[in-house]
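Revision sheet: C-alpha cells.
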Amino acid sequence: MNSSFPSALLENAVNELARLPGIGRKTALRLALHLLRQDEEKVTHFAESILKMRREITYCSVCHNISDRPVCSICADTTRDHSLICVVENVKEVMAIEKTMQFRGVYHVLGGIISPIDGIGPSDLEIVSLEERVKKGEIREVILALSATMEGDTTNFYIFRRLQASHVKVSIIARGVSIGDEIEYADEVTLGRSILNRTPFDESYKLMSK
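Predicted:
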C-alpha cells in the first residue's frame, strides 16, 4: 500500500498521536514534526515523563484520587475538614473544585456515574468504599457534586438511598450549575457558589420530582 509519508517511523508516530482524544491526523502530524525538530534530550525527557506517569502514578487508598503516594496530599492534609466529603465523578472534578478555593473538606472519587446505556452500574463505582468511610462515624456531611445530567441525578439518588440508614447529612450542590452541564466546565465562581449554597438532598429531590 502506498503512503504519503516519507518515513514509516514518522507515520507510526502520527498514528499513535492520533489516538489521543481531540487529536486528528493533521494535528498529530504537526506534533510529530515539532518533536522531530527538538533536541533528542528534550524528546527523551518528554517520553520518559509520560512513561513515569503511567508506571508510577497510583490512586489514593482513601478517596481514589490520583496520587504519587498511597494517600493523596488532600487526604493527608490535617488542616482540612475530614468530616466533610465531596463526592465527585472523576479526578477532573477534584481539580475544578480545588481551583475555586471554596472547599476545605476532602473528596471521594467515584470513578464514573451510573449509566446503564454504557454498561456502568453501581458495582462499577466506588460507592461501597464511600459507605465504609461513612460507617466509621467520623463524617458529618456528604456533598453530592455530580454533573446535572440524568445519569448524575440517578447516581445522586442511588447514593442518597444507600446512605440514609447512616443518618449522615447528605446535601447536593446548588443548581448554579445548569441542567445538563458537566462540573469540570463550570466557571470557578459559579462552581464555588454552588458548593457554598448546597441544599439538603431530600429537599432538592422533592423539588426535582415536582
